[in-house]
Design a protein that fits this description.
Elements lengths: L3 H32 L1 H6 L3 H6 L1 H19 L6 H14 L5 H17 L5 H29 L5 E10 L4 E8 L13 E7 L5 E7 L9 E6 L10 H9 L5 E4 L16 E6 L3 H14 L5 E7 L8 H9 L4 E7 L8 E2 L14 E5 L2 H13 L7 E4 L5 H6 L1
Parallel strand pairs: 7-8, 7-11, 8-9, 9-10, 11-12
Antiparallel strand pairs: 1-2, 1-6, 2-5, 3-4, 3-6
Helix pairs in contact: 1-4, 1-6, 1-7, 5-7, 6-7, 9-10
Length: about 400
């Protein structure tokens, strides 16, 4: 809980800080990487830094956290904190990183806002920062304890499957021959690779295989062209990683998991490479004998671009009561629909819990349609690949 004095100061200064938060985070990252270049090479996603999305996510999360403290003083935004903590744990973020961030973030605030940062203002926003940081440290500590380690582990590639022109699936076993720890359908792992310039970059990929297997399976879409830089790691994995190579993987993390869904109608909606956690969820539901209705929705550019389509259909077919609805922008086949995902024709049973994964515009559109159909906002869960701009914007 924010102290009464600090709450008054934060409320008075939030508009000014919020208006300048983009400049503040720009200056913060410049300072941070100048002092600690190893963090950019080996921890932070260089692509997200170049495109600016990581800066937007940080700015939004700080402003959203402060706003929540003011509007809901007796609670914390645990959904936001939990999602960030899972991502941090997959990266190996440690308590000692937080004072470093504090040093450079508050130096950036002082540089951008100048004389407006009085001792009272600095103290109030320091309180906000450490409330958020200590909450994250506590959640991350619990996640590390549950996983049993903070370290990544070497895994050997035992199979490589070309799913589509732009998606490849890797299957891996522990290089040390040790046991494979279980995971919850919907979770992801961090994968660290050494790039040609020596940087050891890390990316997260959803586990797309069935829980309980003695291998890890994840599927990678090659990121190329467009408004953003080419994906360093995705292109490296596509071009260079073959059977017999070894990759460093974290333990599984992520909070987009099914939980207790016995007897609940479910809707699993995905687009593009967002299919990966949904396939794992369908595999888990099939293994558990889920007998309530399951609505499967997926959108893609074409059937040829639909990665893991065979698994998508096969696991759905094993369920007692499943309906499958595929949408393709072109080359739609009989039994599928042409165009973007539209739930207008679907009956969504009362009490449905929904899971979404895909581009932000897709998830926003589907979420709106689900709410219009009576699905409670609390029953709509989602996963964003990359910095969570939607979460930061929602607070």
């Amino acid at each position: 809980m924010l102290s009464e004095q600090s709450a008054a100061t934060v409320r008075a200064t939030l508009p000014a800080v919020g208006a300048a938060i983009g400049e503040i985070t720009e200056r913060f990252y410049a300072r941070l990487f100048a002092a600690h270049p190893d963090l950019l090479r080996n921890l932070f996603n260089r692509g997200n830094q170049a495109s600016g999305v990581q800066k937007q996510a940080l700015a939004g999360s700080i402003a959203a956290f402060a706003t929540h403290l003011l509007e809901h003083p007796d609670s914390r935004p645990d959904a936001m904190l939990g999602r960030i903590a899972h991502k941090h744990a997959s990266l190996g973020v440690a308590p000692e990183h937080y004072p470093i961030v504090h040093e450079h973030l508050f130096a950036a605030i002082a540089e951008i806002l100048g004389d407006a940062v009085t001792p009272e203002v600095a103290a109030a926003w320091t309180e906000v920062y450490w409330l958020m940081a200590n909450a994250l440290i506590a959640v991350e500590k619990r996640l590390y304890e549950e996983s049993g380690t903070t370290a990544r582990r070497p895994w050997e590639v035992v199979d490589r499957v070309e799913e589509t022109a732009d998606v490849v699936t890797f299957r891996l076993r522990p290089a040390d021959g040790g046991p494979v720890r279980g995971f919850r359908a919907g979770q992801y792992v961090s994968v660290q690779v050494e790039l040609p310039d020596g940087a050891r970059q890390i990316r997260q990929y959803s586990l797309s295989g069935a829980p309980g297997e003695d291998v890890r399976q994840f599927s990678v879409k090659r990121v190329s062209g467009g408004d953003a830089p080419d994906g360093e790691v995705s292109n490296h994995l596509h071009a260079r990683v073959r059977v017999g190579d070894v990759l460093d993987l974290s333990e599984p993390y992520g909070d987009l998991v099914l939980g207790d869904v016995a007897g609940r109608p479910l809707l699993l909606a995905s687009a593009g490479i967002g299919v990966t956690p949904m396939v794992a969820m369908l595999a888990a539901l099939a293994a558990e004998g889920h007998d309530a209705p399951v609505t499967v929705v997926h959108g893609d550019r074409s059937p040829a671009d639909h990665a893991l389509r065979n698994d998508h259909e096969a696991y759905a077919a094993k369920l007692a009561d499943a309906s499958v609805h595929f949408f393709y922008e072109r080359d739609a086949e009989p039994g599928t629909r042409t165009g973007l995902v539209d739930l207008g024709h679907l009956e969504v049973p009362a009490g449905t819990r929904a899971y979404l994964c895909g581009p932000l515009p897709f998830m926003r559109a589907v979420r709106t349609q689900l709410i219009e159909k009576g699905v409670a906002p609390a029953d709509i869960h989602y996963e964003v690949f990359g910095p969570d701009l939607w979460l930061a914007a929602q607070g």
